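Consider the tokenized backbone below.
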């Protein structure tokens, strides 16, 4: 292959120069080796600070894949059972008819509580104990297990509290992730709650533009607007707050470099092993990346192929292929605005893409992340 770094950088520069991207990092591992590592554009339009290798980005729901891996580590250790009711580990969660919700329901967005507690503020997002109490007290939108609907924010507290309660050391979830995932895998720039020293490295978000006149949008009472309330939307005003950046919000608040995100998926591409470290068994990775549901998602409004905490690659119901590629064995998790981490174990490929321009492309032609992900595969001679 000829200089994959240059070929991917050219693709990144193109989506920045032609618009609408502003700043982006891309990293890719192939069979455990870092083969793409590029940065381009502007991290902060107000100051003109450029994106470089030290820049870190809020990647929103791309955080969920790492949170899911934390739970799978506990399952690997025999501390948690996917089929067990959540109340076995978290008795308070059974309130108001949720006693039948299982760990697997939480991982597959079937637990029935995609909605955020009414009136939650940005300050309250930062209060772990307060959030898990409020979520445990929710009345489910449906009987757990009956349907799937994207738990956009609540997923993180469901998974994180299950991990915390099954951790013999009872570590805060963000610390568990640092100790059990980031440290062993050398993910030196991934946090669920940054240290003060990392603040100056954060890219400034550029909010999603308003929909064009006449564009199709969900109705005001759509479930997605209760899963992601407008006052807590994925904006600079909320997720750029110093207190939110320092909080552990594992459904949407991860802050990382593309390289650290890609290292997580390099472990999964290696079927649980990376750089001499094994976190999960091969059998576990194959289990958690297998299709669990491809039903209509009640919050997103279209079918989503879901594994156990990860979204799955492959064509959607229309035949369209997204950034994770066409191989159904691939998996990962996208985040609002377009950041994404994913892997294709068959090819030994792991990719992290982090960016600061919040976009919601309406078609593949508008999808800049798809263009960049395809450039990675083309540069590495990996089948799309």
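A designed sequence for it:
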């Amino acid at each position: 292959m000829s200089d994959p770094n240059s070929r991917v950088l050219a693709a990144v520069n193109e989506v920045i120069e032609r618009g609408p991207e502003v700043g982006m990092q891309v990293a890719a591992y192939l069979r455990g080796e870092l083969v793409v590592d590029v940065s381009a554009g502007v991290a902060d339009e107000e100051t003109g600070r450029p994106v470089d290798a030290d820049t870190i980005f809020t990647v929103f729901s791309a955080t969920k894949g790492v949170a899911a891996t934390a739970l799978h580590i506990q399952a690997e250790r025999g501390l948690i059972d996917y089929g067990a009711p959540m109340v076995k580990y978290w008795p308070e969660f059974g309130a108001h008819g949720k006693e039948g919700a299982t760990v697997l329901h939480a991982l597959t967005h079937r637990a029935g509580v995609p909605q955020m507690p009414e009136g939650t503020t940005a300050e309250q997002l930062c209060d772990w104990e307060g959030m898990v109490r409020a979520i445990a007290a929710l009345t489910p939108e449906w009987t757990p297990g009956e349907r799937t609907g994207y738990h956009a924010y609540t997923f993180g507290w469901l998974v994180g509290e299950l991990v915390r309660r099954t951790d013999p050391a009872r570590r805060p979830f963000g610390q568990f992730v640092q100790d059990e995932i980031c440290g062993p895998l050398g993910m030196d720039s991934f946090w669920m709650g940054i240290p003060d020293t990392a603040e100056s490295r954060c890219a400034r978000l550029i909010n999603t533009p308003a929909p064009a006149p006449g564009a199709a949008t969900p109705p005001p009472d759509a479930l997605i607007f209760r899963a992601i309330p407008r006052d807590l939307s994925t904006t600079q005003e909320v997720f750029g707050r110093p207190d939110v950046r320092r909080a552990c919000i594992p459904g949407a608040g991860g802050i990382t470099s593309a390289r650290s995100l890609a290292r997580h998926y390099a472990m999964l591409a290696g079927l649980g092993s990376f750089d001499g470290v094994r976190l999960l068994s091969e059998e576990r990775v194959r289990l958690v990346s297998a299709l669990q549901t491809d039903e209509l998602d009640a919050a997103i409004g279209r079918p989503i192929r879901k594994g156990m905490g990860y979204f799955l690659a492959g064509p959607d119901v229309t035949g369209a292929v997204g950034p994770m590629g066409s191989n159904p064995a691939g998996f990962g998790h996208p985040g609002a605005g377009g950041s994404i981490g994913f892997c294709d174990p068959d090819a030994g490929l792991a990719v992290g893409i982090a960016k600061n321009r919040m976009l919601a492309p309406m078609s593949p032609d508008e999808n800049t992340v798809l263009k960049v992900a395809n450039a990675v595969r083309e540069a590495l001679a990996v089948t799309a």
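Residues 271 and 282 are 5 Å apart (CA to CA).
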